[in-house]
Design goal:
- It is built from 13 helices and 7 strands.
- The protein is α/β, with parallel strands linked by helices.
- The radius of gyration is 22 Å and the shape is elongated.
């Protein structure tokens, strides 16, 4: 496939812009290629006779450049035609406002865009109306949900690594909205649920985590049948993320993001306060104790 065919298939990439998830992911992969080839931004610029800002805009996702840029960059790093073609596939639809990340058997590859978002995030707003969101799950709860999946161990390890991002210095602020039914749905048995709900009470004690419950008395509410997570980052565009059956979707369209922000505002207005949410979680944790006196609900966070 020559350059003309590539351009026809993958198109050209726009000039400087606020980078989306896919363009930042392209930059990350190009930086890895550059490092493996023992190049630097300066040496690549010298090799291709580019100015250095052009190289760094490409690596930071702020300027996708064109299919020609990627071909030249990969060729300078001595990559094979197959590797070049694979990189160009990532360029397809680079500026699309909605991107469906298709299922990949390699879990690390599948999760990479999401982990990148979670690493860069300064604010995370998530809605769980069926189960506890992954960033808040205990290991036992995870395993009860995953069942006999072939890659269950890998998925558990991946979720635990993602949770560690919330423990680092300067971690994102996470606000989780949980439907009350999530607290009542017995996943994995009483002991697992008791442990999970007590874990939520522990997490509420962290300064960067707020958990708010949407009580059953509300009846229906916006997005009650649609779980999603909204990410705000310093370097990129606001992005909404949702899981599908065999893929996940990233949404960056301005109008859609506005709707998600409106949904978060509505949920904030409807949900119980963090303190009242903690009291309800503690009550449910006590009900799930496997034996009388077997566990004592953790201290409720006062906010």
């Amino acid at each position: 496939m020559d350059f003309a065919d590539f351009t026809a298939t993958f198109g050209s990439m726009s000039s400087d812009r606020i980078p989306g998830v896919k363009s930042r992911l392209l930059g990350v992969k190009l930086r890895e290629v550059m490092a493996n080839a023992r190049h630097t931004g300066y040496s690549i610029a010298q090799c291709l006779r580019w100015d250095e800002p052009r190289v760094y805009r490409l690596l930071n996702g702020r300027r996708g450049g064109s299919a020609r840029d990627v071909i030249q960059f990969m060729t300078a790093c001595r990559r094979s035609p197959k590797e070049i073609e694979e990189m160009l596939r990532l360029c397809q639809g680079l500026t699309d406002p909605i991107w469906v990340n298709q299922y990949d058997r390699n879990l690390a590859v599948q999760l990479r865009p999401l982990v990148m978002l979670e690493t860069e995030a300064v604010e995370i707003r998530t809605l769980g109306h069926v189960v506890v969101p992954a960033l808040l799950q205990t290991e036992a709860y995870m395993r009860a949900l995953l069942g006999p999946a072939l890659n269950a161990n890998a998925q558990v390890e991946a979720r635990q690594r993602r949770q560690q991002l919330l423990e680092r210095s300067g971690a994102a602020e996470l606000i989780a909205f949980l439907d009350e039914s999530v607290l009542r749905r017995e996943v994995g048995g009483r002991r697992v649920m008791s442990e999970q709900l007590n874990r939520l009470l522990e997490l509420q004690l962290r300064k960067n985590i707020i958990i708010r419950v949407l009580p059953l008395a509300l009846g229906g509410y916006p997005c009650h049948d649609h779980e999603f997570t909204l990410y705000e980052t310093v370097t990129g565009r606001p992005t909404a993320h949702a899981w599908l059956l065999s893929s996940d979707v990233f949404i960056e369209d301005d109008r859609e993001i506005h709707r998600y922000k409106q949904a978060v505002a509505t949920l904030s207005a409807l949900a119980l306060s963090p303190a009242d949410s903690g009291k309800l979680i503690a009550t449910m944790a006590a009900r799930f104790c496997p034996e009388p006196g077997a566990a004592t609900p953790r201290r409720v966070a006062e906010r």
